[in-house]
């Protein structure tokens, strides 16, 4: 083979024999960088494998193998008899490489409100560390029957011909949808066909599906004020015109809403246990709401997030149970009745909409696992779920009582509480004009979590309060934590 | 206590003692229906508990208890000394109840194209039944080390102070993000900080986040034609103007795109293994694409969906690895390298965007489970993931070879195939003007799945083909299946 004229010299490169990086990788990396950085120009000849091997003191096989890789990736071209050349047509940078600090394009102007920023930053700080006592909405995870659940999960994973390793049906597991329909009949007096149910990763994905499928940009959505934070942020971001409806002692103030915001496309409500005020919507209001929706061709989004936990009387039927017109989109979740990382929730929709919801569940990214769906179906079928709910209800009632007692007894100079009939949190109304966001921050520094009532509201609120979750804190720890809470509020007031 | 005047008579109601429904429930249900249906009018007096008990032949305690429940739910009001009355103010229906068949409000006009309907209906039929042979993108589930994975899952669920039962960090598990960053360095030559990674439920949720965060309505998105179906449908539904860019033998035709659709906001591409044509984007084209993006302030969405499976040479580095400007949003998934119902994927974004992606992951509905994230991190950390990929690569190469051989040998009158260098599917080009959608339908009836190439395309295609997945079918079954496929195509041609 004729010797071709000498190729480019690789200035400034030598093999580092002290490092653990293999020689192959060192040479390969150096050549790539030289080509991409413009030190080796398109069309330029590389040294022959023999020359380069000698020069660097490495085996010729190594050099050959690096060249072959570069050729296979398009960095270089081999011309028979002539040698190896840097590929033509590569748009490389000619100037020595300077990493310019370019303007980072900002995301488009989606509406993240200041309120949303507050809650997001507080959520972020919570989520990255461990959960601190009194964080709202956290179940008694220490009481969860984990070994039993693990058994159900393993069985679903392994025992059934591996069929749950695939995506599963577009609307979610048929077995789980049957179990949920039975549960809704027993616990919520709802008569729904399992085929009206679409499984989601939780309530939030249900809201995302509703926003994407049912709402056009600019559509008016009546929203409880104060109300569920993440649902509101989501609908705003999806382009809806979310408007605040005040809450009175029967629930949403429909008269106010009807006179201020005509023709809503949807109404978001938590009738069983208003989030966060805890009011149960009266029957009068429920029927009025259903009539309004019927007459105005409006959808009702019923978020039934913690209705399992009622401590006095029988749980009220869901609003959806009264709805003969099929205007109610009913949203349920297992994040609170089981645990958050189970990633399971569901939505009940009219038959005509099931197909759209199932498709959008696929398009927006299926969030629930077919394995978990099957495990949950079996867990419900065997009565484990109801058993767990009953046990939690007893535990939560007790924890609620202890927290209320401690706050009333030791902290009545700073807060006022009333035991809620239902749910997983209570409101501690702040006295002496303490600002709830300040109080929340100071308490978080002292290892006590809460959410300020004001972040649930669309506008400044008249009376500050902290939302305290009582379900995840063992009753034995409550007195000491309340003392600390009281002490911090006292310090705050005296500064 | 003075006897109040007699209350309403409950016409037509009697206790059914043959049914298993408790008497309490029967009475409770009858009264509710009468009130809501208007048979009992607001303000009307109910019979006294004594009267009603006598009349129905049930215990007075039962009647009392039903009345108390109705009062507690707002159906009725108790007036001391006067009796129990149907609540005032209930907006009930006055006419006898007729379930009217009301116009069901249709979802707003979101763009689901005919193409999308085709693929959706074929997906739906697949997902509701069992997976049939040659469905594209299905891993060899029978070869998945399920017992080992179950061990990792159980450990993550149980062993760690139950901390994975909560939501986990907004951007996903730190341990998993570290493992992914190391994997990307080893396998894809990418140097990314674990904090640039946001965990998703899979590639599709990553596209949803990108659409929601990065794209304004009407923004132009260059999209490979033919190209990934669900990603295109999603972006269209989210309001983007998705435009088709033809594929040549080096990848996307940038000249065509630049002259037809100036100033795209984003470019969607599958450079490692074009979906579905299988072309690897050349280095020349990669550099040109990166330069175009830099000069035009455009984002590149790199969908690296099956790059783990390359059967010849070393896998090419990701496009993202060449990107010094941080214009590439890199999307990866475990749906194919592990299994679909694991519900895990990720996106690599520039540091300035991490916070937005983490927040939107929460807002759109967190799809991945903190338990699964931890299990996956440990599975990767212990080298199990790479071991599994290597094993699958061997198996898939063999299955590819057998399928290609059988098709070339037995079915060459109807299809033409070329063994792909990478990925999980091959293209069987149809001869004799057979239409791919017809062929797909006929084969599905015979228990053979495929996807018609035409559903990947924006407009009618010149040459029909079927996309056949070769990874999930055991090599021993392939010859017989190919015979059946050949037979069906032969019949189709002769009709």
Please give a structural write-up.
- Two copies of one chain form a homodimer.
- Chain A is an alpha/beta fold and 495 residues long.
- Chain A folds into three domains: 1-98, Winged helix-like DNA-binding domain superfamily/Winged helix DNA-binding domain (Arc Repressor Mutant, subunit A, Orthogonal Bundle); 142-386, 3-Layer(aba) Sandwich (Aspartate Aminotransferase, domain 2); 392-493, Aspartate Aminotransferase, domain 1 (Alpha-Beta Complex).
- Chain A is built from 15 helices and 14 strands.
- In chain A, the strands form three sheets. Chain A has an eight-stranded mixed sheet, with helices on both faces.
- In chain A, helix 5 packs across helix 12 (370-381) and helix 13 packs across helix 15.
- Chain A is elongated, with a radius of gyration of 31 Å.
- Chain A starts with 22 loop residues before the first helix and ends with a helix.
- Chains A, B: It comes from Roseovarius albus.
- Chains A, B: This is HTH-type transcriptional regulatory protein GabR.
- Chains A, B: Keywords: DNA-binding, Pyridoxal phosphate, Transcription, Transcription regulation.
């Amino acid at each position: 083979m004729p010797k071709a004229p000498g190729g480019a010299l690789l200035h400034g490169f030598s093999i580092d024999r002290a490092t653990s990086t293999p020689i192959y990788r060192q040479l390969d990396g150096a050549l790539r960088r030289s080509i991409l950085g413009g030190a080796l120009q398109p069309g330029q000849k590389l040294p022959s494998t023999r020359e380069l091997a000698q020069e660097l003191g490495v085996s010729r096989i190594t050099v050959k193998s690096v060249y072959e890789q570069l050729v296979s990736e398009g960095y270089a071209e081999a011309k028979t008899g002539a040698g190896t050349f840097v590929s033509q047509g590569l748009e490389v940078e000619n100037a020595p490489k300077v990493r310019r600090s370019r303007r980072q394009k900002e995301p488009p102007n989606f509406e993240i409100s200041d309120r949303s920023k507050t809650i997001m930053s507080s959520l972020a700080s919570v989520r990255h560390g461990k959960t601190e006592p009194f964080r709202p909405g956290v179940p008694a995870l220490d009481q969860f029957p984990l070994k039993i659940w693990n058994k159900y999960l393993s069985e679903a994973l392994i025992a059934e011909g591996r069929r749950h390793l695939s995506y599963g049906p577009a609307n979610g597991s048929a077995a789980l949808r049957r179990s949920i329909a039975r549960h809704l009949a027993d616990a919520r007096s709802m008569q729904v066909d399992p085929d009206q149910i679409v499984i989601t990763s939780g309530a939030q994905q249900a809201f995302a599906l509703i926003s994407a499928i049912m709402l056009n940009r600019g559509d008016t959505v009546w929203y409880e004020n104060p109300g569920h934070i993440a649902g509101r942020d989501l609908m705003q971001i999806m382009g809806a015109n979310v408007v605040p409806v005040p809450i009175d002692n029967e629930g949403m103030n429909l008269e106010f809403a009807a006179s201020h915001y005509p023709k809503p496309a949807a109404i978001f409500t938590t009738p069983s246990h208003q989030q966060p005020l805890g009011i149960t919507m009266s029957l009068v209001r429920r029927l009025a709401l259903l009539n309004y929706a019927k007459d105005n061709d409006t959808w009702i989004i019923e978020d039934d997030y913690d209705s399992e936990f009622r401590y006095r009387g029988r749980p009220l039927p869901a609003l959806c149970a009264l709805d003969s017109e099929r205007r109610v989109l009913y949203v349920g979740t297992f994040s609170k009745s089981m645990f958050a990382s189970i990633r399971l929730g569901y939505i009940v929709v009219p038959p005509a909409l099931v197909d759209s919801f199932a498709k959008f569940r696929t398009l927006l990214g299926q969030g629930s696992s077919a394995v978990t769906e099957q495990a949950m179906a079996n867990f419900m079928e065997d009565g484990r779920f109801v058993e767990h709910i009953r046990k939690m209800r007893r535990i939560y009632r007790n924890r609620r009582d202890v927290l209320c007692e401690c706050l009333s007894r030791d902290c009545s100079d700073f807060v006022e509480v009333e035991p809620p009939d239902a749910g997983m949190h209570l409101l501690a109304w702040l006295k002496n004009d303490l600002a709830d966001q300040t109080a929340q921050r100071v308490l978080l520094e002292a290892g006590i979590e809460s959410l300020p009532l004001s972040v649930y509201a669309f506008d400044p609120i008249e009376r500050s309060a902290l939302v305290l979750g009582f379900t995840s804190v063992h009753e034995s720890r409550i007195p000491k934590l309340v003392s600390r809470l009281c002490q911090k509020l006292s310090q705050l007031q005296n500064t």
